[in-house]
Amino acid sequence: MIFSTLEHILTHISFSVVSIVIAIRLITLLVNEIVVLYDSSEKGMIVTFFCITGLLVTRWIFSGHLPLSDLYESIIFLSWGFSIFHIVPVFGFKKLKNYLSTIIAPSIIFTQGFATSGLLTEMHESAILVPALQSHWLMMHVSMMVLGYAALLCGSFQFIQQLDRWSYRIISLGFLFLTIGILSGAVWANEAWGSYWNWDPKETWAFITWTIFAIYLHTRKKKKWEGVNSSIVASIGFLIIWICYFGINLLGIGLHSYGSFTSN
Amino acid sequence: MLRRKTLQILSNLPLAIGEMFTVASLMALGTFIDQGEAPEFYFQKYPEDHPVFGFFTWRWVLALGFDHIWSFLHSAEAIRKQEFSESLPRASIQDVGTILMGAGYEVFLKGPSLYAFKGLAGRLAPVGVHIAMILIMAGGTLSATGSFRGSVTVPQGLNFVVGDVLAPNGFLSSPTEAFNTEIHVNRFYMDYYESGEVSQFHTDLSLLDMDGKEVMRKTISVNDPLRYGGITIYQTDWSISALQILKDNEGPYNLAMAPLQINGDKKLFGTFLPVGDINSPDVKGISMLARDLQSIVLYDKEGKFAGVRRPNSKLPINIDGSEIVIVDAIGSSGLDLKTDPGVPLVYAGFGALMITTCISYLSHSQIWALQDGTTVIVGGKSNRGKMEFPEEMNLLLEKVPEIVESTLSG
């Protein structure tokens, strides 16, 4: 009982803090840089990070398994991934701070808000793990996939914003995570069901995402194609990830139905 | 339009992979065969009277150009065109080479030209990525053409022969000796959460060879399969086979349970014990339903709820004048069997892909330099660290000593 209240509080704190941060960002954009306000918005993002971390840990302790077993939990994890990819560069690349916050904060808001909205109220309660999900592979596969998606989304979004160098790095990292995620999923599937690839909709679309970003990485190699072409590919990649992550869940079929809206 | 573009890119991929493979081999070769030496060096090292590997002589080396795999850029314009380029007036290319060697570069000097690289792993890794993908595809092909698959639901206590269950999946599939193994389902049981949901289900299996000797014994569960002789047995499903009951202390009777259709993933099984005249057209009886092996729900002949009993509790229940004792609920294990010769290849490919993708992020830098009179023109590029590379280069080049007129003439 205590845990679920704690969870509730943490969710609402992080939601409110991010809203305040966005408001501050907007003010600083319209009115000239007020340094004090800017710093406090930075602190706000750090508070959010800790809140989401606390939220995940609470859920983990309460349910006894890593909080990655359904759509609600993976959305929280995605927000956490976004906030990490915000904090890390902030300490490394001071000059890019400005753009990153304005982008990532809204993204976190969107995902958090969506998660806490009425659409997913039934899923707030932690569910028990069905036998098929009782595996150490769960941790590696799902966390890699969600972190991969978080990184690739951040990267593609920044690319559209012309943050060339930085987005290339994040996308490269995201691509690595996605590779590991897909492969660990395949090995897990083989251990559990005897087949490492089933052309399940989610698997297929993850593979498509992987291919698109592989193409993106290759377009960066050719001097002539760098720039416009890779932006196009990155934007397509952005769309594809959302299809893969959400769109497939709307279908509610296949091996990955744990994450669908229709499964209860 | 995108599709055509994608097709264009994809259709070049096999060629690209082939090229990369060739490039990789040549680069590896270039590391073993000393580069940029005079022909006499090769006459000595790869002589005709003692050929290396029985055939490899200097004629091969020079004919195939293995002495200059590493390309030296011979013109100043080519060097200036690099991402990073600098001119060092009053410098010597030997000094540049020495500084680079000190910074960990492999340096090749040929007359006025210099070529240096650092981070070979970062250069070769992308090739490794493509080789890994070829491995995966080869393994996948082998899986598709040479596997066997099969499913079986076996009530506790029964057995089956592997070969009867497996069916070939491709034209290359051929059965092995292990297919004669007989599998006994010794025991099937389930674990439950406090809420009553199924947490895990297990099967205790014994494998017997053709002589009836037990060659293996293991309890499998979901995510924990059994492997024997290239065959893997997975726990994928479960069912309830029968209820064993005593009626008025007679029995035990085995009532077969049938699966009932309900919405969602949940299962429900039911059976029926007729009461009164069995031959009458609308025979009534006691219905028994089970969601799992934990508890049985009983209904009387009017369909009214009568009670719940746990198997093995030995607690009788009185329904419509009969005393029923649920002795046992016998489960069935749902097993999937598979042989897949491609798996080792595919797993090797997966491992290689993960490792080589990681390594390909290591930075790899190349530097070319040309001595043009008293000026050295330096150019270079790096695959990563687009911002750090020029900084690193500038730091290194600052260390190159400036040659003052008096020392040159002396």
TrEMBL record, chain A:
GO terms for biological process, alphabetical: cytochrome complex assembly
Pfam hit, one: Cytochrom_C_asm
Principal location: membrane
One GO cellular component term: plasma membrane
GO molecular function: heme binding
Membrane topology annotation: Multi-pass membrane protein
Domain Cytochrome c assembly protein: 68-256
Highest taxon above the source species: Eukaryota
Residue intervals passing through the bilayer: 12-32, 44-62, 74-92, 99-120, 140-160, 167-189, 204-219, 231-255
Keywords from the named record: Cytochrome c-type biogenesis, Membrane, Transmembrane, Transmembrane helix
Keyword check for Cell membrane: no
The keyword Transmembrane is annotated on this UniProt entry: yes
Subcellular localization(s) per the UniProt record: Membrane
InterPro entries referenced in this protein's UniProt entry, alphabetically: Cyt_c_assembly, Cyt_c_biogenesis_CcsA, Cyt_c_biogenesis_CcsA/CcmC
HAMAP family per record: CytC_CcsA (MF_01391)
PANTHER family on file: CYTOCHROME B_B6 PROTEIN-RELATED, HEME EXPORTER PROTEIN C
Listed name of the protein: Cytochrome c assembly protein domain-containing protein
Lineage: Eukaryota, Viridiplantae, Streptophyta, Embryophyta, Tracheophyta
UniProtKB/TrEMBL annotation, chain B:
Membrane topology: Multi-pass membrane protein
Cell location: Membrane
Broad class of the protein's primary localization: membrane
Protein's name according to its UniProt entry: ResB-like domain-containing protein
Annotated signal sequence range: none
Domain of life (superkingdom): Eukaryota
Keyword Transmembrane in annotation: yes
One Pfam family from the record: ResB
Biological process according to GO: cytochrome complex assembly
Keywords from the named record: Cytochrome c-type biogenesis, Membrane, Transmembrane, Transmembrane helix
Ranges for domain ResB-like: 76-241, 303-393
CC terms in the record's Gene Ontology section: membrane
